[in-house]
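User: Assemble these into one structure.

Assistant: Restating your components, then the assembled model:
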Amino acid sequence: MHSHTVTRSDKVCQCYVRELSQLAQLELHYGAHDVRCPVYRESLDPVDRAIDECARKLYTEHLDLWPVIAAYSRAQAIEDGVLVDLMQDKMAEVARQHYKHPIACTAAVFEIMQKAVENERHGNDYAGVLHDMLWMSRCYGRGQMGQSTVRFRVKITGAGRKSLYDFKLVIGPGDDASPVITIMLPEED
Ligand SMILES: [Zn+2]
């Protein structure tokens, strides 16, 4: 047995199934997961396939569970470290000065912030770096009114060789469908 062998159990469900009760989850085949779910695997048996198709329709189309999943995904992403919640300590104060919605950033964005802060020669702190980012997002945002994505450029010293960084700020539905903000690298989504 190789300990590093990747097995199917390493894949984490990302679809409606994880919102169901444990009992309901046990009754479903991999083929009943949403086809975009990492766990999804088409059943080989045609009868199973038909049952899976039926379950998927029942849960996803008729019960309209997707908004709940979108909200759960964000909370789960923060827990998993894929997203970093910026509504903590002094960063929360800064965030509220700029936007009325809660803000998180991707791990890649936070890594840039962290490098800047940990570089002692530049005297950065998280609140200051975040302030610069949000300030610039608002400056750029004026030209992109009414859009859910604002692309912006900000000067951050001490995070690496370059000092100008491009980001995008995305506003979308979060927990309970009220708006939340996510800061990402331009190529992330
Ligand atoms: Zn799934």
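Helices lie at 22-27, 46-62, 66-80, 89-98, 107-118, 126-141.
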